[in-house]
Amino acid sequence: MSAQRxxxxxxxxxxxxxxxEALVGTLGHYGISxxxxxxxxxxxxxxxxxxxxxxxxQWKGTGPFKDFVVAAxxxxxxxxLPDRVAPYELTDTLASLMKSLLQLLNGxxxxxxxxxxxxxxxxxxxxxVDDKGGPQERFMQEALAPFSEKDAELFDSLAETLxxxxxxxxxxxxxxxxxxxxxxxxxxxxxxxxAARGEQDAAVSDLVKLTEDTARTPIARILAVDGLIHLKxxxxxxxxxxxxxxxxxxxxxxxxxxxxxxxxxxxYKAQNDRVSLLDLVRTADRLNAEHDRIHPGHTxxxxxx
Length: 305
What we know:
With 305 residues, the chain is mainly alpha-helical. Helices cover 67% and strands 0% of the residues. It has 16 helices and no strands. The chain has helices at residues 10-13, 20-29, 36-42, 48-56, 68-80, 87-105, 113-124, 137-144, 149-164, 168-181, 188-196, 200-212, 218-230, 234-250, 254-271, 274-294. The chain is globular and about 75 Å long.
């Protein structure tokens, strides 16, 4: 173990100016013995925050060094794995892109949108992907974890807001990015952009097709129903939701069926369709009873009341 160690000022100065030996020495002093080979082995299955989580159980640092166990893997990744993208790089790049787009929406004509997209697209090409060509789920979980709920709301609405504000090309680009990062939204973000540009009927048609696509995951089909609800296309939303509910029941997917109940409840109330609401209550009772029979003791929030 190295005798060199990081001093208490690291919290103000960051870790870049400290030697690798000092980083490793500090980790060792507080309970984590690690060499580059060990770190590379860990990196085969996880990323910096995941490594920190594994180390925390053995970590003895307190006070100024309580959070060193989280910061050190990030810095060691930068030094020992410089050719591999780390989740924090995507976090920072996405935050910068969203900031520049928000500046544009707030009237800053000189907002650095083009270079922000260029940097993002360059990074996107280097991201670790799964066998379907989408970004690795664990990587994305770590990259998106630092964002607040407010940030998430901005991310979700940004493409649509850009389209509604007349920034069609940027809206399309951001929707494409959104669907790449979150594959279950494939086709949905673009539909929202179409609707915001005045193509409501086409957008609704696109979303209905997505709800019918059995090749999509159940959550992806539910998100398409959510899209219809968002566009206040209550008739198509009711038809698609009911169809999907019947399909979920026929395939014994109780959780999918139960997740559809509050969505249909919302639509039927918007339509003032009391007959369908009453039928939905009966359906919800039947589904909850079946769920309780299969999963005794597993309580769910009851809908359809």
